[in-house]
Write a structure and sequence with these properties.
Layout (H helix, E strand, L loop, with lengths): L2 H19 L8 H8 L5 H6 L7 H10 L6 H12 L2 E3 H4 L4 H13 L3 E6 L10 H15 L5 H11 L9 E7 L1 H4 L5 H14 L5 E6 L13 E4 L3 E5 L3 E5 L2 H15 L5 H13 L10
Parallel strand pairs: 2-3, 3-4
Antiparallel strand pairs: 1-7, 2-5, 5-6, 6-7
Length: 288
């Protein structure tokens, strides 16, 4: 968790404590507020001390319980301010994967130059429908969220129209390990690798593959996207990080440039993808 995020969460806790202590009708103790809200007895303490992020519903309940309903808009604005940078999957996926895909579709629409690094799976914007379907199914199981796989697949395919927009450029670097990952049946992965070979010919896409045998200057860690060299989106297991401060964006740009230097392109990349495809156990129809 970033320092800025934690500081903002603690500041929100301080503000909530102020409302409790200045409650209409007189100061409330933590126990009294818990009873009014019907919460677990430790929740007020955890929220006020920045150890738990309140939900929008929590903030509305807090404002009403302290007799300060007019403070609700202010509290929600504070929450949106720091959650715009760390977006938990639990909250984002509450209504399914399609909403997340639509958010990225809107972000893509406003940008023209994209740089991406991926070490574990094929970039979403290059995925086939069957490969995307496998990815969404696995993540739905992991996050225990509502299944809207087909709607999410359609939204992801909609994003791919941008690959044919002459005003946009995609500079993508992929670790070879992602080509081997059997997150889907081998036949689906084979079709996905065929798709990658074809993408290399697009004039809007520069796709590099970092071979497993390449000398690496830094570890091939977490995947990320850079939009117009001014915003970065990083995916972790628990959340997406939306980063826009100049120093941090600069770090990701240097990271991307460093990884790129280990990549192969063009015919060499196509040859590498083809070799992985030929090694697939296509006689097997089962997924892992």
């Amino acid at each position: 968790m970033s320092t800025d995020y934690q500081q903002a969460r603690e500041a929100l806790g301080v503000r909530l404590r102020e409302l409790r202590l200045a409650a209409a009708g007189g100061r409330l103790t933590g126990t009294e507020l818990v009873e009014r809200c019907g919460w677990n007895k430790s929740k007020v303490s955890r929220v006020e001390n920045g150890r738990q992020t309140p939900t929008p519903d929590d903030l509305g309940t807090w404002a009403r319980a302290t007799g300060r309903p007019e403070s609700c808009d202010e509290l929600l604005a504070r929450l949106r301010g720091f959650e715009s940078h760390i977006r938990s999957w639990r909250r984002q996926l509450a209504s399914g994967h399609k909403a997340v895909q639509d958010t990225h579709l809107a972000a893509h629409a406003d940008s023209s130059v994209f740089r991406g690094w991926e070490s574990s799976m094929v970039f979403g914007i290059l995925q086939t429908p069957d490969y995307a379907r496998s990815i969404f199914t696995r993540y739905t199981e992991l996050q225990r969220t509502r299944s809207d796989t087909e709607e999410a697949v359609r939204s992801r395919m909609k994003r791919q129209e941008e690959l044919y927009d002459s005003s946009k450029r995609f500079h993508l670097v992929l670790w070879e390990a992602a080509l081997h990952a059997l997150i889907c049946p081998p036949s689906v992965l084979a079709a996905q690798l065929d798709r990658l070979v074809g993408v290399i010919g697009l004039d809007t896409v520069e796709l590099g593959i970092v071979p497993l045998s390449a000398q690496l200057r830094i570890p091939p860690a977490t995947a990320f996207w850079i939009y117009d060299d001014c915003q970065v989106i990083v995916e972790n297991w628990h959340a997406e990080l939306w980063i826009d401060d100049e120093s941090s964006v600069g770090t990701y740009l240097r990271t991307w440039e460093t990884l790129k230097r280990s990549a192969v392109y063009g015919a060499e990349a196509q040859h590498l993808i083809g070799a992985v495809r030929r090694s697939l156990p296509l006689g097997s129809r089962s997924s892992p």
